[in-house]
Write a structure and sequence with these properties.
about 260 residues, alpha+beta, six-stranded mixed beta sheet, two-stranded antiparallel sheet
Length: about 260
């Protein structure tokens, strides 16, 4: 299916690159979902904890993996940040889950708004609303950006990659540019969130069953093994005839020197 390339994306990435970036983002999210579902299956637990943990970390890891070999892309970990981000052309990519069911991304909220999020949104347009984050408008002024983010080229724009998913499937991923308008993670979309194309299959399949394990030994306790056979030696006939008592220990050997000697 031929997906339209939005004007804002053409402006940020160029007409020769935007299609590649769309495809790599879609592949990254499909791979993330495949790995998260495999973790949930192998976890064999009643909660969705394995899925959630793998999905959360996997969204960053898989996006970074897709762009590691792309010419002109920079995969980096901001100082003190747990995960890697991708900067390519004039775009800084940030994936996040906005829903567990099919819904419009225009209602998307960021899961949390911490220091890193505020720093990332210094690369986003300023919101149009006037009363934000207390008594001042949210923007780059007054926010100290960590060195690796501050070193990004001038004109870099934060590109959000919101997606909806649950353990049963990846629903709809989007991308676009938005402003952060409050500390609850509300967004004001500057561009129309555009759907991303999704490949038919993940990059590689994960194990769906646990490999056959080596058979356990027949004896699992130290006292269930074969008993050792002690080696017995008969005493010489001459000692028995002379009634010489058996010797069970060797005579001690007198040392010729000891550790108290000075020489």
């Amino acid at each position: 299916m031929n997906h339209a390339q939005p004007p804002w994306a053409l402006d940020l990435f160029g007409k020769d690159r935007v299609g590649l970036i769309q495809e790599r983002l879609g592949q990254a999210l499909v791979d993330m979902q495949e790995n998260a579902r495999a973790a949930q299956h192998e976890g064999d637990v009643e909660t969705n904890d394995p899925y959630g943990a793998t999905r959360w970390t996997g969204s960053y890891r898989q996006v970074a993996r897709q762009f590691e070999d792309v010419e002109g892309a920079t995969v980096f970990k901001p100082n003190g940040y747990r995960f890697k981000l991708v900067h390519i052309e004039r775009g800084l990519l940030y994936p996040f889950r906005f829903a567990t069911e099919d819904m419009s991304p225009r209602h998307a909220h960021l899961p949390s708004v911490g220091r890193v999020i505020r720093e990332l949104f210094t690369f986003a347009p300023e919101p149009s609303q006037s009363m934000l984050f207390g008594d001042h408008k949210f923007g780059p002024a007054g926010i100290e950006v960590r060195p690796k983010l501050a070193a990004l080229p001038e004109g870099t724009r934060l590109v959000l990659v919101p997606y909806a998913c649950n353990p049963h499937g990846l629903l709809k991923p989007y991308w676009g540019v938005a402003s952060l308008i409050d500390d609850q993670g509300s967004l004001e979309w500057v561009t129309t969130p555009e759907p991303l194309p999704l490949p038919a299959a993940p990059t590689r399949r994960r194990l769906s069953t646990v490999p056959r394990q080596a058979a356990t030994p027949e004896h699992v306790s130290f006292d269930e093994g074969e008993q050792p056979v002690p080696l017995l030696f008969a005493r010489p006939d001459v000692e028995e005839q002379r009634s010489v008592p058996p010797m069970t220990e060797s005579d001690p050997i007198e040392p010729l020197a000891n550790e108290d000697d000075e020489d």
